[in-house]
Design goal:
Order of helices and strands: EEEHEHEHEHEEEEEEEH
Oligomer: single chain
Helix content: 25-40%
Number of strands: 13
Structural class: alpha/beta
Radius of gyration: 25 Å
Shape: elongated
Largest sheet: 5 strands, parallel
Number of helices: 5
Distance between the termini: 43 Å
Length: 224
């Protein structure tokens, strides 16, 4: 989003970048086609929708263990399909204590039939029946608008902002998932509102300062 504040003497342009992110998904046959249907990512967003069903967590990254432990709140049948993940002894103990079984073996593809997920096929030919699976995607910010701008970034490459969304470059603001991969819809909306308030306050303060300068230059007396 961009906007222009018109003043008597100049135009001041600002931009609020709210372009979000994209989910970087592992390259497993059948996964992209089922994304958002019965291949899901957030236990808190989707756990209730698939409660009491056979669930699987794909071991494509370190976040998989916590996903599996969290999902146990919604289903008694949760499997961690290890794939390329090697859970530590501590991880295995926590999973066992929680009632989550670890299934070893590299994942070959997701098996779907008649518009529904049926299971996960492993390299040894086994198909592990599951009605929904969870995967932890790699969040990738849609931050092309920042390319070429000298905005500060954190150690992970994300544009940094203050609490109101202000970046290190004057006039450039960033809100929502383009700056915070953990922001949900309500959070992102709140970030946008906070940025709007702070941005308008800054512009108003700037206008007041310019008005005072013009008032003084005019030689007008200050009212008693």
């Amino acid at each position: 989003m961009s906007g222009t504040r018109t003043r008597a003497t100049e135009r001041h342009d600002v931009v609020v970048v709210a372009t979000g992110l994209r989910d970087g998904l592992p390259e497993l046959p059948g996964l992209t086609e089922r994304w958002g249907l019965d291949v899901l990512h957030c236990p808190y967003c989707h756990g209730w929708e698939v409660r009491d069903r056979p669930l699987g967590v794909l071991g494509t990254g370190p976040g998989a263990v916590n996903q599996a432990l969290t999902l146990r709140q919604w289903s008694a049948d949760v499997l961690l399909l290890a794939h390329t993940l090697e859970p530590t002894d501590v991880d295995r103990e926590r999973l066992a204590a929680r009632g989550v079984r670890v299934v070893e073996g590299r994942i070959v593809r997701l098996v779907a039939d008649d518009g529904r997920l049926r299971g996960v096929e492993l390299a040894d030919g086994r198909v592990v029946p599951r009605e929904a699976v969870f995967v932890f995607p790699q969040p990738v910010p849609r931050d092309a608008l920042f390319f070429g701008l000298d905005c500060e970034r954190d150690d992970n490459g994300w544009v940094t902002t203050d609490r109101t969304g202000r970046t290190s470059l004057p006039g450039v603001w960033a809100v929502g998932n383009v700056a915070d991969p953990r922001a949900q819809v309500v959070t992102a909306a709140g970030m946008g509102a906070a940025a709007a308030f702070a941005l308008d306050h800054d512009l108003t303060a700037e206008e007041v300062g310019q008005a005072v300068d013009r008032y003084r230059a005019s030689g007008a007396a200050v009212p008693a």
